[in-house]
Write a structure and sequence with these properties.
The protein has 2 domains: about 150 residues, Medium-chain alcohol dehydrogenases, catalytic domain (Quinone Oxidoreductase, Chain A, domain 1, Alpha-Beta Complex), CATH 3.90.180; about 160 residues, NAD(P)-binding Rossmann-like Domain (Rossmann fold), CATH 3.40.50. It contains 12 helices and 15 strands.
């Protein structure tokens, strides 16, 4: 079956993204071929394209962790029929119009459920829910600081925390983003472009600090944020947007490279700093959950249940044609987006 995918031909800028045709083999007996309607875009895709995501391997490879669509072909033992609606997690390969996926990495959708909304669920909500339940052990009445609160994970985490009755602090790079995030549960917004988030959190809490931290920045922002935790506080870090090196060609961007290196070197957390205040720090890498399918499927079942009940609603900032993946990446890199971005194919309704 003829298929198309977006490939990272080599590490670098958006110019390395190429659309290629290939022959997709028939699905194995426990697989399905999905006619992809929508594929999710995540910041990890950009990190992989730049060459800083170890699990991506060497080019060429196709990014993409999540797709929604309908079954084009079904293996005999897959449990699916042609034209069934489906949501799937993919270990790369999502930027395609057709993809083969093992049945145990898929989730059946009801016939009329929104495929666009569904495609925006797995990566950000799985990361958030795993972090909150198994890293932070969050509970009603606690306070949490969420960095990049208007991004895909920020909105997902805010909705999950709102549903559990947490007090939510959040940072973003503009007042507009904070106003947007307030629609999804944010209580205390901090404009990181004009305010010192440490000072603002301490001001709002009367220097008592916060219970929980969900960090996506890394670097010195993580170190400063840990200083805000109360005794018995818990933190999870899920990324390093604040220390990400420039977009390829380090020698052509020496200032950016030096800044990134400085952030990396200064982002040191000594074990005694954790012990002396009885606080904990964990890291979460979503892709590794792909190897723990029972756990992943349990989380996804919770997410789908709340989504179907209207308690979770991903915000889709924009949808781009598959061939315009580079434009979508540029949009994310501009740091002006809110929520989630998707790719669509010719199969989309």
């Amino acid at each position: 079956m003829k298929a198309r995918s977006v490939v990272v031909a080599k590490f670098g800028t958006v110019d390395v993204l190429q659309t290629r045709e290939f022959e997709l083999p028939d699905p194995e007996e426990n697989q399905i071929t999905i006619a992809v309607h929508y594929a999710g875009i995540n910041f990890a895709d950009i990190i992989a394209r730049r060459g800083y995501y170890e699990h991506a391997g060497q080019p060429p490879f196709t990014p993409g962790f999540e797709v929604s669509g309908r079954v084009a072909k079904a293996g005999k033992k897959s449990g699916y029929r042609e034209n069934d609606s489906v949501l799937a997690v993919t270990r790369f390969g999502g930027y395609s119009n057709l993809v083969n996926v093992s049945h145990d990495r898929t989730f059946k959708l009801r016939a009329k459920e929104n495929l666009k909304s569904a495609a925006a669920l797995p990566a950000v909500y799985l990361t958030s829910l795993h972090s909150l339940q198994h890293g932070l052990h969050f509970s009603r009445g606690e306070s949490i600081l969420i960095h990049s609160v208007a991004g895909g994970i920020g909105i997902a985490a805010s909705q999950l925390c709102r549903n559990q009755g947490l007090e939510i602090f959040g940072t973003a790079s503009s007042r507009d983003k904070l106003e947007f995030a307030s629609q999804h549960g944010l209580h205390h917004g901090i404009d990181s472009s004009h305010e010192d988030f440490v000072e603002r959190v301490q001001e709002i809490t009367n220097n008592s600090g916060i219970d929980l931290l969900l960090d996506s920045l890394g670097g010195t922002a993580l170190v400063k944020s840990l200083g805000l935790l109360k005794p018995m506080g818990r933190a999870v870090t899920i990324g390093g947007a604040g220390i990400l090196p420039p977009d390829g060609h380090l020698l052509l961007q020496p200032i950016g490279a030096i800044k990134s290196a400085s952030e990396y070197i200064r982002a040191r957390v000594h074990p005694l700093d954790l012990i002396s205040r009885n606080i904990s720090l964990a890291g979460v890498q979503l892709l590794l959950l792909w190897d723990h399918l029972d756990h992943l499927r349990g989380l996804m079942s919770q997410i789908l249940k709340e989504w179907r009940a209207g308690k979770l609603a991903p915000h889709i900032h924009a949808t781009y044609p598959l061939e315009n993946a580079g434009t979508a990446h540029t949009s994310i890199e501009s740091r002006t987006t809110r929520g989630k971005l998707l790719l669509s194919t010719e199969f989309a309704d």
